[in-house]
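testing teh design pipeline on a random one, pls ignore if ur not involved
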């Protein structure tokens, strides 16, 4: 704004210089004319009358004006030049100069025109007369003329000279005064200006003709001039109104933008042209933020806080920008002028219309900006970790896939997977809040060490990844990894304590035909290799990858396996240990691979979980399990069926719906389905798992905790997962006769299940001695090769029908005959008495 003010001062100086020069030259012409009048012969009474009449005509022509406002300046278009042309035809040049100077000066004083403008108008009129007289002199027709109409061509040339001088003087001065371009002033209403010049010349010729016939006919000239003046004024007003409405339509249309900056900048430029204002300001108040945009129609002079805006011209017309539906105002529109300006009725109406359109545009742009901001925020949140601000797994996979596609153009691609060692101890000892602070600090160090050319991501928990997508050579990945890991081993200050958190990392570099999922898997393999070898980091080596190419090939065969129903189910019965009666059967999936034969889950489940076919696999197994159970029930054996559930399925919110839909399709009671969960399920601490398991349990589905006793947090997991059944791992069953610790685990599990009202099933029962020992410890049910190996559904049905010892539904003889008196072992008697004592209390 300081530059703009300096520009205005320079413009004012040029304007005053130009006006002063015009006045000085005109004053010299007046003095010369006055000297000619004084030194020449005395005029006759007729000549004096002509001079007074000429003064009157000049004054009348100056009074009949059409006013056009250009910003704060008003241009007056008069008919004085017609009177001057008449004077040049009937009087000497020096007399005309004096008469025009006197007539204009008197009129300017009477109209109370500002002195500088009055001096310029009078001087301009004098110089126009001088130019017209000079043109007549060049053509050899100097006034007074005996027969002016005989030299009509010379008069026309003189009038052209008058018009040229008029434009040559008025246009630069007007352009400087209004701070507009000379070209714009010349082009403004040029067609009407030509018509106007022709009409004035015609009036001058008509006046001369009347003077040649009868001077009393001049009485007809004023009405004619008034009519032409009214016609011209009406044409100008009509043109101005049409232009204003066209500009208003164009301005409001230009406001239909979705960018708030574009709306505000367009508004200042459009309003400046529309209302011919020196400056336009739009001040808005949105979301407690104030913003001021000021422009002059050609450029934006200020855009920022209103408190920081330089002062503008004091004269201003303001109109509020009203809020939606009677709400608080959202801003104000100001038109600023360098002088006093009163807007016409049409301009006031246009101003209200423009302000209303601007209100709508500002609200729409603000709403769009808010939507765009929310969309950007949601997109950022969807691709970034909320705790650390790092990219998340989704962002890493997207960026990595892009980098692999462009590999070779941008450089080599490598991935480093980082896992913090013993981070769980920080959470367990200091709490999750302290753990979160450690993660944030680790994220900051990783981001700083990785630099701007690498993408750092948090995959979850204490696992991070760094994607290098522009390495000059793959070998540089290990060098970068060492530099990135070094800061992590520096102690972290936490509430006055120094905590050391070490990390292990695995590095994998991209190879041909490698996708992002495989790159991540290889980094994971390398990371665990680093942990096992107690190294800071390790690079991926195919020779150390237990998931060999055969596993990769299995992943590629999964789609075909699902489509061709290659997944089948065998069933291992679960029996009552005491009676040998079958109470349930566990579904065990098999893959009948066309090339590799029958595969058990240990060979393919990892590939299924890492693919996108887990849901289809789970549905196929569940369908076969439910169908088999229905067939058994139709044959008279109403037993439950147990199905193993992958931990990843519990992260799928649609999993309960799929299970219940499959049960409903066969009319299978949810209570007869048991879903077996892995006891070392660390994701059980996630809220989504609680919701999935809760929905299944509420529907009546039974839950079993598999391999109970093998994890480090058995009781904590049991307290979170609402199970109905515990399954003792086969390792404890196999050792319970030789290991007191294993026997203690079995006994405590049985007692825990009994106290919680849960069914306890022992896995891996291989001998009668194990069966008897389990019964002595109080275990109700068991499964293992002692009773039956996994069988297809039809063969299990045949075994049920055949039974043991002629008793259908049994697979082993009862430990005791029906009705016999059983003497319980001392341990079981003690357990029963203790339980009865608790019940009595």
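output:
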């Amino acid at each position: 704004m300081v530059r703009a003010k300096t520009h205005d001062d320079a413009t004012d100086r040029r304007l005053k210089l130009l006006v002063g020069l015009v006045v000085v030259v005109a004053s010299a012409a007046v003095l010369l004319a006055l000297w000619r009048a004084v030194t020449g012969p005395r005029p006759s009474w007729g000549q004096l009358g002509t001079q007074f009449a000429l003064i009157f005509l000049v004054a009348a022509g100056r009074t009949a004006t059409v006013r056009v406002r250009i910003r704060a300046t008003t241009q007056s278009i008069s008919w004085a030049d017609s009177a001057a042309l008449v004077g040049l035809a009937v009087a000497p040049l020096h007399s005309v100069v004096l008469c025009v100077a006197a007539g204009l000066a008197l009129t300017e004083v009477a109209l109370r025109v500002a002195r500088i403008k009055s001096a310029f108008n009078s001087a301009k009129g004098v110089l126009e007369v001088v130019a017209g007289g000079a043109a007549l002199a060049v053509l050899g027709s100097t006034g007074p003329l005996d027969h002016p109409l005989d030299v009509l061509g010379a008069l026309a040339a003189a009038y052209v000279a008058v018009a040229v001088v008029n434009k040559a003087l008025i246009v630069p001065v007007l352009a400087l005064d209004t701070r507009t371009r000379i070209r714009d002033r010349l082009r403004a209403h040029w067609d009407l200006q030509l018509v106007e010049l022709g009409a004035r010349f015609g009036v001058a010729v008509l006046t001369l003709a009347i003077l040649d016939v009868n001077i009393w006919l001049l009485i007809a000239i004023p009405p004619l001039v008034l009519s032409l003046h009214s016609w011209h004024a009406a044409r100008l007003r009509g043109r101005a109104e049409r232009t204003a409405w066209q500009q208003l339509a164009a301005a409001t249309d230009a406001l239909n933008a979705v960018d708030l900056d574009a709306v505000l900048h367009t508004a200042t430029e459009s309003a400046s042209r529309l209302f011919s204002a020196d400056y336009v300001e739009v001040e808005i108040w949105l979301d407690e933020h104030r913003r001021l945009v000021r422009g002059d129609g050609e450029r934006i002079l200020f855009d920022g806080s209103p408190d920081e805006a330089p002062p503008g011209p004091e004269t201003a017309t303001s109109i509020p920008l009203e809020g939606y539906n009677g709400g608080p105002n959202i801003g104000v529109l100001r038109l600023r002028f360098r002088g006093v300006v009163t807007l016409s009725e049409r301009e006031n109406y246009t101003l209200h219309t423009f302000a209303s359109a601007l209100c709508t545009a500002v609200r729409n742009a603000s709403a769009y900006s808010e939507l765009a901001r929310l969309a950007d925020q949601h997109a950022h949140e969807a691709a970034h970790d909320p705790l650390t601000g790092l990219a998340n797994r989704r962002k890493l996979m997207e960026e990595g896939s892009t980098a692999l596609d462009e590999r070779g153009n941008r450089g080599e691609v490598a991935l480093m997977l980082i896992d913090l060692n013993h981070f769980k101890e920080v959470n367990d000892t200091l709490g999750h809040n302290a753990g979160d602070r450690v993660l944030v600090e680790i994220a900051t160090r990783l981001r700083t060490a990785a630099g701007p050319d690498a993408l750092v991501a948090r995959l979850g928990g204490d696992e991070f990844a760094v994607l290098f997508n522009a390495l000059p050579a793959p070998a540089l990945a290990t060098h970068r990894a060492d530099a990135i890991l070094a800061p992590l081993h520096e102690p972290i200050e936490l509430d006055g304590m120094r905590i050391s958190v070490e990390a292990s990392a695995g590095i994998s570099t991209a190879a041909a035909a490698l996708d992002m999922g495989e790159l991540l898997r290889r980094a994971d393999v390398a990371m665990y290799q680093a942990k096992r070898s107690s190294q800071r980091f390790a690079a991926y080596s195919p020779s150390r990858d237990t998931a060999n190419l055969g596993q990769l090939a299995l992943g590629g065969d999964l789609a075909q396996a699902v489509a061709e129903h290659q997944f089948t189910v065998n069933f291992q019965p679960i029996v009552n240990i005491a009676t040998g009666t079958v109470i349930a059967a566990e579904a065990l999936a098999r893959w009948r691979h066309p090339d590799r034969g029958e595969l058990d889950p240990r060979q393919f489940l990892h590939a299924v979980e890492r693919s996108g076919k887990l849901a289809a696999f789970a549905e196929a197994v569940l369908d076969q399990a439910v169908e088999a159970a229905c067939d058994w029930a139709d044959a008279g054996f109403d037993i439950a069926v147990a199905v193993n559930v992958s931990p990843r399925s519990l992260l799928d919110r649609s999993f309960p719906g799929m299970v219940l839909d499959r049960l409903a399709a066969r009319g299978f009671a949810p209570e007869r389905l048991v879903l077996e969960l892995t006891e070392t399920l660390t994701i059980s601490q996630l809220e989504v798992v609680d919701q999935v398991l809760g929905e299944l349990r509420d529907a009546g589905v039974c839950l079993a905790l598999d391999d109970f006793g093998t994890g480090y947090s058995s009781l904590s997991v049991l307290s979170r997962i609402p199970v109905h059944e515990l399954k003792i791992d086969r390792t404890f069953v196999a050792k319970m006769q030789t290991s007191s610790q294993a026997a203690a685990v079995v006994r405590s599990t049985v007692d825990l299940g009994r106290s919680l009202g849960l069914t306890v099933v022992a896995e891996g029962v291989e001998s009668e001695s194990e069966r008897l020992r389990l019964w002595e410890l109080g275990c109700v049910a068991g499964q293992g090769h002692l009773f039956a190996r996994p069988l297809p559904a039809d063969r299990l049905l045949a075994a049920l029908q055949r039974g043991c010892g002629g008793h259908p539904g049994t697979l082993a003889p009862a430990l005791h005959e029906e009705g016999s008196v059983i003497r319980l072992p001392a341990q079981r008697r003690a357990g029963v008495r203790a339980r009865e004592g608790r019940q009595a209390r």
